[in-house]
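Q: Could you fold this chain for me?
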Amino acid sequence: MIRFLAALFLAAATQAGAAFSGSIVDAAFVTKAIARGAIVWDIRSTEAYFDGHLPGAVNAGVIQTLLDEKTQQFLPIERIDANLAAAGLDLKREIVVYGSPASAYAYFAQFALEYFGARRVHVFHQGLPAWRAAKRAVSTAAVKPKPVKVRPFANPAMLATTGEVLARIGSPGVQFLDVRRAGEFRGDESETLHGGHIPGAIHIPYNEALVDPDAPRKLMMKEPVDPAATALHKRRELKKLYAALDPRKEVVVYCHTGIRAAMTASVLASLGFHSVRLYLASWYEYGNQSDAPVEQ
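A: Sure. Below is the predicted structure, expressed as structure tokens.
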């Protein structure tokens, strides 16, 4: 155990400056990635997986693989190690992640894999519908993962802790970006001790990056959704959306637990923002701090 933890510490120290890639890809890219041996991770439900999935894709849930639902923090690294290994998610190989169209969970999976040491992870944003639209083959056969050896190591530079957030409120060198719904930002909706937002935070809901910002709600409610509605805006529109942010300064992105924030973090990284960090556990942790300053 001591040797294992020492190795993790050394690896983290050497990787501390690594940046989040924010690689978002389409069906043509995925086709080429599969041809060169990339792992494809389908994060959808088992039922959705067996209804049809990308050929060769392994199936494992994001929450079960990565998170402690009680704390909304990552599982102990030994558990992460075992879960990734059992799912065949070799961090040394290229990995493509997809879920339902515009799934924030796919982006969280990307962030987590990179946080634990992977360096070539892509999100297939529109997933299976885009794959079908490109007339690619779909499989319904189960893929049994080949267990692999995984040595995950944490890269603390990619995450912001509650202590760091509290210490840096008001600092000119950091921008806090709240990507929750308007009601959550104002404090009208709250599941924590305090409702509201971090003082000085900029508010841009994560779903505003989509052609139809209401698409995630429609999908959740099983309402009809035009596949084009789940696409991200073009780069020019995205730059306008995030014009209030300085791409040269650090951006700490948060939501309620960190899932939605992961999508925005990836989009910002893809736009060339130099330092994007995720506040894991986000308002779930901050809003339960008795002495944390709050704006409403």
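A (continued): The chain has two domains: 2-156, 159-286.
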